[in-house]
Amino acid sequence: MERLMFGKLLEHFKKEDWKKFCEIGANNFFSETFCVRLDNPNKKEYLKIGSENVIYGKFIFEHTSGHITVGNRCHIGACNIISVNSIDIGNDVIIAWD
Predict the structure, then answer these.
(1) Which helix (H) or strand (E) holds 95?
(2) Global pTM value
(3) Which residues contact 98 (CB under 8 A, 6 or more apart)?
(4) CA gap 60, 52 in Å, rounded
(5) C-alpha 30: how far from chain center
(6) What number of other Cβ atoms are within 10 A of residue 85's Cβ?
C-alpha cells in the first residue's frame, strides 16, 4: 500500500506534491499536529480547506473515494477525521480534540 503524508508546514513540500491533493484557502493556521494521510492516493483533490481556520487535526483518507471539505472560520481540534467517502464541515464550526 502506498501512503503519502503531509505535515504542518505545507510550504516545505514541493507545491506539485501537495497541490494536486489539497486546496488551501488564505489566512489559515496549521499547528504542529496537523497532518494529511492519503492511503493509495490518486491524482485528485482529497481535502479542501476554506479561509481563516485554525487546524490542529489529522485528516486521514482510507480510500481513493474519500473527500473532506472544511468551510471558513472553523476550529478543528487535535482529533482524527477519517474519510472513506465524504465529510463536509460547514462555516463557523468548532470541533474539539479527542
Answers:
(1) strand 94-95
(2) 0.83
(3) 77, 78, 79, 80
(4) 21
(5) 10
(6) 8
Quick one: which of 5, 10, 74, 67 has its CA closest to 36? Answer: 5
Distance CA 62, CA 9 (A): 22
Give the number of C-alpha atoms closer than 13 A to the C-alpha of residue 15, restricted to the C-beta side: 2
Burial of 20-47, coded b for 16+ CB within 10 Å and e otherwise, reads: ebbebeeebebeeebbbbbeebeeeebb
Distance in angstroms (rounded) separating the CA atoms of residues 93 and 71: 8
Beta carbons within 8 Å of 14's beta carbon, 6+ residues apart: none
Q: If you write DSSP's letter for every residue of 23-85 in order, what string do you get?
A: EE-SS-EE-TT-EEEEES--SS--EEE-SS-EE--EEEE-STT-EEEE-SS-EE-S-EEEESS
Residue 87 contacts residue 61 (beta carbons within 8 Å): no
Per-residue pLDDT reduced to its tens digit, 45-69: 899 999 999 999 999 998 889 999 9
